[in-house]
Amino acid sequence: MFQQFELAHGVKLYVRPTEQFKTINISFKWKQPITVKDASIRAVLSNILQYSNEVYPSNADFRKRLDDLYGTALYFDTTKKGNNHIFSLNAETVNDAYLSNEKVVDEVFSLLATVIFKPLLVNGKFVDSIVKREKEQVIERIQSMYDDKTRYAQQRLLENIRPDHPASISSNGTVAEVKVITNDQLIEMHEKLLHEDELSIYIVGDINVEEIKEKMKNYFPFSNRTEKLPTEVVNKQGKNDTNYLHEIQDMKQGKLHIAYHTPITFYSEEYPIMQMTNGILGGFAHSKIFMNVREKESMAYYASSNYSSLYGLIFVLAGIDSNLQEKAVQLIDEQILAMQKGDISDLEINQTKSMLKNQLKEALDSARAQIDIYDQYKELNEDFKVEEWVEKWSNVTKEQIQQMASKIEKEFVYFLSGKDGANNE
Amino acid sequence: MNETYFKQLEETLYHEQLPNGLNVYILPKKGFSKTYVTFTTNYGSVDREFIPHGKEEPVIVPDGIAHFLEHKMFEKEDGDVFQKFSENGASANAFTSFTRTAYLFSSTDLVLENTKVLLDFVQQPYFTEQTVEKEKGIIAQEITMYDDQPDWRLYFGAIENMYKEHPVKIDIAGTVESIKQITADHLYECYNTFYHPSNMIVFVVGAVNPEKMMTFIKEDQASKSFEPPQEIKRFFPNEQNAVAISERTLQMDVQKPKVIFGIKSNNTTISGKEMLNYELSMQVAVEMIFGRTSSFYQNVYETGLIDESYSADYSMEHGYGFTMIGSDSINPDMLVHAVKQTITDNSKEWKFSEEDLKRITRKKIGFFLRALNSIEYIANQFTRYSFNNMNLFDVVPALENLTMEQVKEAFESLKNENTHSVFKIIPNLKKNDE
């Protein structure tokens, strides 16, 4: 899918020329093992670098420059993938071909180089007032999760089942860690990005590969660095005395989040079988959980499962009336039990195969998704092909799914609701 | 079949209006593997008072019925339509807005088969009292879910403040109480009135052979029988120019206060080119004054009055329209003050240059070109434009021709204080036992 080149040791360039899009997408991804402290520093650093730089010291100047470049989108982002924290810089700009007499793409490259190599420094430090404010912004971003009950409930579930584990560490870090970040730590982290972190650069669009390669070398003189990050996550279970937690907040709907552990991860041979198994259980609108919890019992508007393959976990989520919790858990248990007993129809298998295939093929109609999917799958095979994955699903049998279902073990039930059972008005 | 080539965008649009009145548009996209098909009716939550098909007196239907109808379209005598789409590897969905109800699927395979499923399920209503009752639990959970979302409550609170009579102030899904009143008869009445092909648009975009698809849809429609089209009579209350409520506060379990400064628009009976120009002028004016490159933004960001949740935009449909400037804020009152001050300052002295206009215009053109990579965006927006007699592909030339006079005139409409309204959500006072 992507052609790859090594720009320096530990710095790889992945290029995909295509006429599919009217824009060019560029993505820099710096990876390092995730820790709460470093995630916090990197989240704040990303905000600082996004705000201004040496050439455009005020945010308004910087944003005006981007607007002039036909509203080029340029943003930093911090995410995580398995054991690793990913610090990314993304840009999307219109292709010169759609503009008469313009050379936008070169300008965008130059701007990206400025953003990366020339931050706004005074005496070798970031501007204190900017550091202070951006720390505040990240803290507020972390706190705002409380207002989104689904995200909050999922985070509380993770903290309970995998404390101090990559699965529960937020890519923004924590309020406590952000508060104590120093200017020196931010400078040090910036140096690490420039010289130490493994870096993958992606470019997708209607481009000439050789030209782009030359430009990249000129604009981005990255130094050699040491590789290679550990990929596979050790899925150690947390030690829990209980396997159930009910928390109460001032709210109307009950949020039911159940965690299951499995021995199968993205790196396992049986990964495609577990994808099929999750698809039949609750991945789609034809799945058992949706059909039974929503359609048959009218208990929920949303009820689904998702497979977090890097951590070997399956999560079931449903929004239900707060006094129907026990009934919902029982109904969900029954669906897994049914699969373990072999209650899996040919129709369900065929539907799930078709949907998985469609999902993957559809995702590839977005440049951003092409980058993200390749960035993931290349760890298994640099020569990623859609057809290969479709083939893997198409070979999965009912017996294999039944066997996979028996490897799903319930680990924890988290329930967030208003006052127990009562109408919380 | 009509064919229009948009040179600057390198896109060709195919169109035909079928004998039953249905408008079909097809936009093939080079290099895409998925096809996205939408089937949309010009009917949404604001259409609550109308003369039902075949009758003479207007009726008022229960709140949330357009959305309820959308849910019920998926259930048929022989089961759930999602099952059929899943078998064909298509992901299907639907949504109801204030003015539209859209049914859609996307798939990378079996596109004609899926199109058939879509056309059939939308054109074959099946409602029984039993299935209607069953749906009430599901929709009640959907309503409850939104009740717990502060940003949704903020948005609706702001609209409720601005409108006194117009049904735009009613939540699209209705309330748990209002949906209890809905019966199968109601659904048939709304269906028969608003789901006539002459009130609908099919839009196909992505990997598609236009001739084959058009022939397929034509044959399908020719094989079905429809009554002759009738003019739909909808009634909307007279809405005053001033806002209904100028300031209101709601307490919720949130971390930080939230606020929207809303400005009610009164120039909302226009359509076509006039609407396109007005809408773009308003959007450019709001972007100039309150966008991320404005001195207003710089000031409120640096003083910590806004955070990453900040937004400022203008939206309109036939009959209503509003500007909303909002953010989570540690001091919503100071933010509101800054917004008002900015409007006053600009009415005393217009501080923007042709250079500013050019920059904002470029930004919007760039955004538009980026958006054309998204076939979902194209389909949804094209349909919206079309129901308002506008053409999505006129946006770039209209932006290029926009003058400072138009932008300034749009700004004038933001000045009237009677059209200003503030809605806040503030954190609950903590109870002692928690």
Automatic annotation (TrEMBL), chain A:
InterPro entries: Metalloenz_LuxS/M16 (IPR011249), MPP/UQCRC_Complex (IPR050361), Peptidase_M16_C (IPR007863). Coiled coil: none annotated. Pfam families: Peptidase_M16_C. It comes from the Bacteria. One of its GO terms (molecular function) is metal ion binding. Residues 181-356 form the Peptidase M16 C-terminal domain. PANTHER family: INACTIVE METALLOPROTEASE YMFF-RELATED, METALLOPROTEASE. NCBIfam families: YfmF_fam (NF047422). This is Insulinase family protein.
TrEMBL record, chain B:
It comes from the Bacteria. Coiled coil: none annotated. Pfam families: Peptidase_M16 (PF00675), Peptidase_M16_C (PF05193). InterPro entries: Metalloenz_LuxS/M16, MPP/UQCRC_Complex, Pept_M16_N, Peptidase_M16_C. One of its GO terms (molecular function) is metal ion binding. Residues 64-175 form the Peptidase M16 N-terminal domain. Residues 182-361 form the Peptidase M16 C-terminal domain. Gene3D superfamilies: Metalloenzyme, LuxS/M16 peptidase-like. This is Insulinase family protein. It comes from Psychrobacillus glaciei. The lineage of its organism: Bacteria, Bacillati, Bacillota, Bacilli, Bacillales.
